[in-house]
Write a structure and sequence with these properties.
single chain, mainly alpha, 2 domains, elongated
């Protein structure tokens, strides 16, 4: 049984429909990449904090400390950044 949507399609029109879908997917991927680069660029203290938490979970201690310190410099009242930075120092056994 043939679909009613495909009845009048020839090879060229089918190709055009398929490539327009690919173009839409590519455009969505491009926009997602641009947005992702903006978030990864860390414009707010929360961005540094979130990246620091991710690095903390991966065991990237020095990089996590750097991100938490940047978050604290941008927002000195960011208590959770202090907390996680302390956790990383504790993990490294650097108690001072």
């Amino acid at each position: 049984m043939k679909s009613k949507y495909l009845n009048n399609l020839n090879e060229d029109s089918l190709f055009n429909r398929m490539t327009s879908g690919v173009t839409k997917v590519g455009l969505v991927a491009l926009v997602g990449t641009i947005i992702g680069v903006g978030v990864y660029g860390c414009k707010k203290s929360e961005d540094y904090y979130n990246r620091g938490v991710a690095r903390f979970k991966k065991g990237e201690n020095d990089r996590a400390i750097s991100d938490f310190t940047k978050a604290i410099k941008m927002n000195p009242r960011f208590g959770m950044a202090y907390y996680y930075r302390g956790m990383v120092y504790h993990r490294k056994r650097e108690y001072d």
